[in-house]
Structures are given as C-alpha cells and as structure tokens.
C-alpha cells in the first residue's frame, strides 16, 4: 500500500517538476498566446484539462478526495506523460525560444500548471505550497495571494471543446496501435527509439481525413521521423528502420543532415530553427 502511495506521489511530483522547468522562461503577462492562435494540440490539452477540472470540482463538492487522487495520477501518467508532454518535448527543445510554436506550448503548460496546483492542494498541501512559493519568488503569482495557494481560487479554463476531444481521442487510439507495432521491432533489436522508425500507415477514409488534417505535423504526433499516410479499406501498419541520418540536435533521422556545410551534423530543420527563419508548426 505504501509503495503505491509513494509511486502516485512521485508521478504527480515529477510531472509538476517538468511543468515548472518548462515555464521557467515564460512570462504569462508578456508571452502568453491567445487561445485562437495556439496550436491545435495545445488547445486540445487545455480542453482535456478543463474536462478533468469539471470532474475534480464535482468530487470536491461532496468531499470525495480519493477519486481526485486517482484521476490526477492517471492524468499525469497517461494524458500528460505518455502523450502530450512526450510530443511536446521536440517543440520545447528544438524550436526557437520565442517562436509561436514554443510560446503556444508554454501557454498551455502554464495554464495546466496553475490548474494542477489547485487540484492537488487539498491532499498534497506542502508540495503545492512549495511550488506556489517558487512561482511567487519569480513574481508569477498574484500579490494578493502570494502568501499561500489556499488564498487563491480555481483557474478559469477555456470551455470544453467536445469535437476537439473526440478528434484527438481517436488520434490517440491510432497512435497507440502504431506504437505497438514499433515496440515489436524494438523488442527484436531492430529499432532504438521510435524516431528511428519509418511508418507506412494505411487507414480508412474517415481516419485518413482525420490524420491528413495534421499535415506535416503528423510525424511529430506519432514521434517518428517519417510517416507515410495512405488511404485504404482497412487499417494496415508497416514499420521499418529509417535509412536517414540522425541529427545530433533533434535526434530525427533525416535525409538533409549536413545540408549546411557549416553545420554538418545538423538537419535542415534545426539549421533553420537556430540560424534562419525557423520551421512553421500548425498542429503539434
């Protein structure tokens, strides 16, 4: 029992540490991106957070703490750790520091952090207060409530977008299916990370339209270097090792590594993000 409690606490605390670390250079008063300008996956993440907050507040209204603990742990593990944050790392670490793509991600992370601190405060009071103090020292908490998180109220998140939640729920299902096929090759020692995988994904008309709407960002959602989307009658997945060269910065396997002779170990995307106009991201 104690081991499970420790594991739950560690999961929530480690997620919080990741969130705080990745908004450390973010000033919400200056850097926040309006909801309508945010990338689609970031808007999905905020909608999912709003959905969870609605559930959590219903439990708190009747003093049900245990379901909140369970739901928050699952949220940190599955919604954030295994999906959203996993996808977000490439954008946070490889795009230009002040680019729209990165600031959009940080805007979502900031709102999730603020909401999550309030969700956990009733049962992880000391941890919530510790994080609140860290934000306070950086001048990122309201002066009126800087003394304690318990002086503040819950965050007003954007309304739940049911259509967006349904769309991304299906995308997550397809991604999980592809990941299972990638894991088969990893278990056989034919692949290292999923970024080394080249995926040919055949799906039915509805799923094809869904995935095609992600455009060039599809590979970032599936965390592969290459994904070839095809229309067909039934789901079919073919996974093979990429023949591209690994970029030492973003770790993607690409054919344009060394395209700039001045930076022979970088891909064209990283060269642009570091020294040029930077890549354009619209979805993820």
The helix content is 40-55%
Instruction: Summarize the helix and strand pattern as letters.
Output: HHHHHHHEHHEEEEH
| Morphology | globular
Known CATH architecture of the largest domain: Orthogonal Bundle
- Main sheet, how many strands, which sense, barrel? 3 strands, mixed
Class by SSE composition: mainly alpha
The low-confidence parts are none
CATH topology of the largest domain: Isoleucyl-tRNA Synthetase, Domain 1
Strand and helix layout:
Blueprint: H1 2-21, H2 28-31, H3 40-61, H4 66-94, H5 100-120, H6 125-137, H7 162-187, E1 197-203, H8 205-212, H9 218-222, E2 226-231, E3 236-241, E4 245-246, E5 253-254, H10 268-275
Helix pairs in contact: 1-4, 3-4, 3-5, 3-7, 4-5
């Amino acid at each position: 029992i104690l081991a499970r409690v420790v594991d739950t606490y560690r999961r929530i605390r480690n997620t919080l540490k990741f969130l705080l670390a990745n908004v450390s250079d973010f000033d919400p008063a200056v850097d926040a991106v309006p909801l309508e300008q945010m990338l689609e996956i970031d808007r999905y993440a905020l909608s999912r957070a709003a959905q969870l907050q609605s559930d959590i507040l219903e439990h708190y209204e009747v003093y049900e703490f245990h379901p909140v603990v369970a739901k928050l742990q699952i949220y940190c593990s599955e919604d954030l750790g295994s999906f959203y944050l996993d996808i977000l790392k490439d954008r946070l670490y490889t795009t230009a520091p002040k680019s729209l793509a990165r600031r959009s991600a940080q805007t979502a992370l900031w709102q999730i952090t603020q909401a999550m601190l309030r969700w956990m405060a009733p049962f992880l009071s000391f941890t919530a207060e510790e994080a609140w103090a860290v934000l306070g020292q950086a001048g990122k908490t309201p002066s009126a409530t800087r003394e304690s998180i318990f002086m503040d109220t819950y965050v007003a998140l954007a309304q739940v977008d049911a259509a967006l939640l349904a769309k991304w729920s299906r995308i997550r299902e397809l991604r999980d299916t592809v990941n299972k096929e990638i894991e088969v090759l990893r278990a056989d020692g034919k692949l290292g990370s999923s970024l080394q995988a080249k995926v040919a994904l055949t799906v039915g008309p509805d799923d094809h339209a869904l995935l095609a709407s992600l455009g060039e960002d599809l590979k970032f959602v599936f965390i592969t270097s290459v994904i070839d989307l095809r229309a067909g009658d039934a789901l079919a997945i073919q996974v093979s090792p990429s023949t591209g060269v690994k970029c030492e910065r973003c770790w993607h396997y690409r054919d344009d590594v060394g395209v700039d002779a001045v930076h022979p170990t970088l891909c064209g995307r990283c060269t642009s993000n570091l020294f040029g106009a930077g890549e354009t991201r619209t979805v993820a």
